[in-house]
Amino acid sequence: MTELLKKAFEAASKLPPETQDAIAARILMELEDERRWDEAFAKSQDKLAQMADEAVAEVEAKKTLPLEEIL
User: Fold this and answer.
1) What is the pLDDT of residues 11-43, one digit of tens each?
2) pTM of this structure
3) Total domain count for the chain?
């Protein structure tokens, strides 16, 4: 455990139990959200590679405009 996380837990441990529970629930939600993002990203690698290939092909076929022309 990092020193910063230890410091945060020490500070949280001095709070009322209901506040500690609220903080704990928020941390657990963040961890679950991070897990879902990691899972979704891992599953999307093939699609991302396909999209990158399509983007390169469009640039090579001159089917795109420079950003300066769009803005």
Assistant:
1) 999 999 999 999 999 999 999 999 999 999 898
2) 0.62
3) 1
